[in-house]
Batch of 2 targets.
Target 1
Amino acid sequence: MPSSRRYFLLTLGCAKNTVDSDSMAELLERGGLLPAPRPALADVIVVNTCAFIEPAREESLTALRELAGKKRPGQWLIAAGCLSQRMGGELARLVPGLDGVMGTRRWMDVLAVLEEIRSRADDSTVVHLPPAPATGKDERGVLRAAVRGASAYLKIADGCGRPCAFCAIPAIKGPAVSRPMERILDEARVLQDRGVHELVLLAQDTTAYGRDLGMRDGLAALLEGLAEAAPRIDWIRVMYAFPGAVSDRLIDTMASHPHLLPYLDLPLQHGHPAVLRRMRRPADPDDASRMIQRMRERLPGLAVRTAFIVGFPGESEIEFEALLGFVRAVRFDRVGCFLYSREEGTASAALPNDIAMEVKEERRGRLMELQQGISLEENRLWVGRTLDVLVEGRRKSLSVGRSYRDAPEVDGVVLIEGDAPPGAMARVRVTGALPYDLIGVLEEGKAAGENIRPPRKRPVRD
């Protein structure tokens, strides 16, 4: 291993990759390496890649090639994560100068991979891709969380067993493997003691948590455990729920604990039954609409985020118009929209009637224009009301934070007139609305800079 013992870790892709990167960093530092501020100063460079869709693969390959082209003698470059898992040893041909390849299922072997590189007889690429996934079973005691300011992403499971026709994640990540509940609760206590205000629960499918452990309603049970184990964490947020898997017990659990946020990320993917059947997704948009309505009745102020794919093979104009009608009817708070990407090895790769790229882009534009108007109308409902805002930084003369309606990185922000310190939980009166963001002032009577705890009640939407 290099004598100066410094590493640089580049993370591409989603927040789940961020957690894996932070876990690898903890292991590297246990092994005696120190973080370097930039690649040129590191002896070991690890790129945690993404391979979900073609643009993500291209970004990962570009980053690897650029770093390989700048490698100095004695410096090691390792490709980790999803692209490595998907391409294996083929990466060595595509990226000359690559020293190691390790897949997403064995991130915990990063020190062993360094030892293999050190012990090799020549400059050949070490390919470390054990066939059996061990996520959740062999974590080497590292914290499976990524702390960013006063928020922390906490991974509760990995892998996926859903049969979605468009998705390569099951092939990349393997089957769903839930982490032991006691381990998650212990980590929540650690994060609470570190002063974290917000836990963001991550998995490919959070609503599948515990199924492989023989649990029924495992996510609800986990949330109940977290509410008891970490009562000083103000917000607990659920991401990546699966339509049809949101149970009445889960809804009741969220309604029973004030710091379980009335927020749900529920990727629905489309609004027409025929497209959903081709996607191998739950195919009744009306059922999804009824479920959201039940949640809104039980959870005043509920914020619902969803995601849609446009341009799925065979998507007709009539089917796309049905999606627009679905969005108008349900009135989601947040919407992400993705262009369909044909992925080798998925069921949809063999479907006929691909949609032209210009049609996909035009449909995405129409959908997001519609949603922008809805988001603005929903945001205007908050003008004059008061929200709890987790302050994260400054933007010119404004403080910037997020309300319970805003997940980190993917949703909007609250722009606050005045000076509130990062990490504060502030009370903010909303004075203006933008399509995705809110504008507000610190509530009268509360001093700027005061670390204000939120009241134990939720904002109620009229």
Target 2
Amino acid sequence: MNIPSTATAPAIASRGKIFMMAIVAGAVITNLYCVQPILPLIASGFHSTLTAVDLVAGAALLGFSTGLALLLPLGDRFDRRKLVLGQIVVAFVLDIVACFVADVWALAAVSFGIGVVSCVPQQLVPFAGTMSKPQERGRNVGTVASGIMIGILVGRTVAGVVGQAYGWRAVYGVEAALMVPAAVVALSLLPKGVSSTNLSYGRLLASLWPLMRDNRPLRESMIVQALLWACFNAFWVNLAALLANGPWHLGSAWAGGFGIIGAAGALAASIGGRISDRKGTRYVIGASIASVTLAYLLLFGANASLALLVIGVIVLDIGVQAGLVSNQTRAFAVDSKAQGRINSLYMTATFVGGAFGTVVSGWLMSRFGWNGVVALGIILGALAGAFHWATAPARYRTAEEPLI
């Protein structure tokens, strides 16, 4: 069992501090995704194959998953401010090292390390939650989540432009430069974190299973968001192929441009958080599932209509981002003293779902074309909707948690 800390509760953060957390989160998460649009440039620079350099992107995601599982629980035991600052400093050093690596294997190793410390944004999310009034928690979590998603989507576009103009090593130089103001902001604005438990690191990790086993809202949030994130990745991983092989024959710059469109939809995370505060998370989760399913119905015609593709992207990102923050807010409500561990479980499930969507949709795209990807999205959306509906009666039998 947890032994409460004698430290005082964290202060309530102002909107300005929450906004700066979102900026730091968006800046750090670009470390994870900057490599994806520059893989052809890396292959050319090392005279390697795309299959080999794909390991660099895969190593970053593997490292990120490792960080989610092993570092996020530390936020319940130690000062999150020190953890965040330490990881930003390590990210800066590794970005510098990446500028000078000699081969693709060394870059893959560095990329893994960068991925591990890039889980900083997911340490800031529970930070925002614990520093919020209950009636503002969804809004504030949504603001930080918006920063993360904008960083993911815009970061890909910027990396592609910088890499094309100055080479792939310059991208890591830009990433290193970004870490400097991120560290300054974190040092200046983040308050000292408050430990919520005295459990040892081993017992923290051991407590993950009973935490998930004993809290159904957490399990339900993990399952629904894994399905929605699978839908999200199924689209974005196949977009470049659709644009290149469809009737338009558009290049990677256009695929990056769609990241800007998706970033507009990412603002829905903050709006979804506000609605969650007023009407409850289950309401927003249901609307998010409906939005994602509708998006894929629109995307059925995306291989013939750019208008349907643009509308589909916006509707898809609105649904996924609003669902992300609403499921996350619902999960956090389970235990205020286990925010780091809850986020570790939640985000690990989310990225497992994303990996599933990436692998399966890629196979469907190669075998059945765009229609296979759309069919997968509709099926996943239907599964999420059926699960959400099936669990609703049991959740509403009690009045203790009317908002989750």
